[in-house]
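pasting for ref
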Amino acid sequence: MVDESRDVSGHEQLSVVLRVVDIEIKTSDENQLTSLFKEYFLGFVKLDEFDAQTLTDEIVKFLSSLNIDLNYCIAMCFDGASVLSGKHAGVQALLRQQHIPNAIYVHCYAHKLNLVICNVTKSVPYLSEFYSIISKIYTYFHTSSVTNETFKKIQQQLKIDCSILSITTIKKWAETRWDSRWTSIQSVIENYKALNQSLEELVDEGTERSIDARGLLLALKEPLFVVTIFILHRLLGKIKILSDQLKSKSIDFGKAHTLISAVINQINELRSEEEFSRLFGQITAFCVENNIDLDVKVKQRRQRTISTRFKNCSVTSTIGQREEIDNDSKYRDFIFYPVIDSILVEMNDRFSKSNMEILRGISSLSPDSSTFLEVKELTDLCTMLQCDIVSLSNEAEVLKPMLKQSKSKDIVDLYFEVLPLQQAFPTIIHLLIGAMTIPVSSTTTERTFSKMKLIKTSARNTMSDDRLSDLSLLAIERDFVVDNEKIIDAFAIQHKNSRI
């Protein structure tokens, strides 16, 4: 797994992470299960050129310097950047053509999920305006110490008067942060009263800030805004749960597809009048509590007219004008249903099992699959891992009847169940280890950049790239036991001058 980011000095750093399965773990105990999957940060590689061939050469050179044999690599996981993921001239294509022909490329599932939400934003007209309001609320209360102090003061008053359990801050809305959309919406709901009262107080000041406060207050109390924030909170909440799981290094492809299918089914079940009526009941109660009139009519815009160019045409709708959404049926038809439909279309398209035959084979190793241990489905995976197809067929015929009463739910459970019989089913064990090794997401590389920014700051921006890589390695891989005495001895041998 690799990803790139720029440090505080403007140097482009490539983070390299290796995922392995520890076959020494012999028990399915939950305390040891997390140590079954290991993702090791190997270091940063400074990039001077950014074309695909240079990136490929740098990756191969770096792994070779650590004596890591590329022939054992079975998968690559990158984000969707074209220089990495391009199927003809990207890094993943060049690595397969030149070094590891049997390896597969996996587009990071966490990045895919982020793209789902980004595309939903573009497909529903009002959402771009809605997200703009959310972002402006954060900016208004964080760029000025006066507005920030007013907001904190109102929060403290409400905590005393209304017994609010906790005081939370307004969260930033960001395109590249996977959970920022849900957390920003959640923070607005939790702080809705404080936001309203703060804006009202700032409006009464009569300063330059009052103009922006008045506009935000009107937007915050608009029924369409309130309805949308509850709809997105409900739907994005389910996606957030999926996102949290996909970012875990202990998840495998079988479990990932099971979770994705479950979330798709749950979102699909929400698309009904009964579910919307239940949600709208919560919205109504919230509006009553916060003195918002859901029945208020939207200010009449200028009358829609059709261009004279179309006077001889049959025109059923106009372009560039928003539909007036001012009652529950329109909330349902123009916001609730379109958002659900957009999410379902995006998720079904981006997470389809049929995209890669090998991934279908991985799913066939899961006990809850309808094609469990079917050799036809496992052929491509078997070829990639260089296993004997005849041995696999014989082992599958013997193992399937033995697992009829099995309680295994996923690939990990099956691995520990078959492990005591490793000598009898070596091919299937090998397939299970390979399936668990293939990464689902590259979020570990993203976490290394967070540590990099803590180590190389503006006050320490002259450190060398090798030093940055070494310090990051020590800070990230803390589980390794370091013998300081041996390090001191090695240092003393290399540097004869005792004054050092």
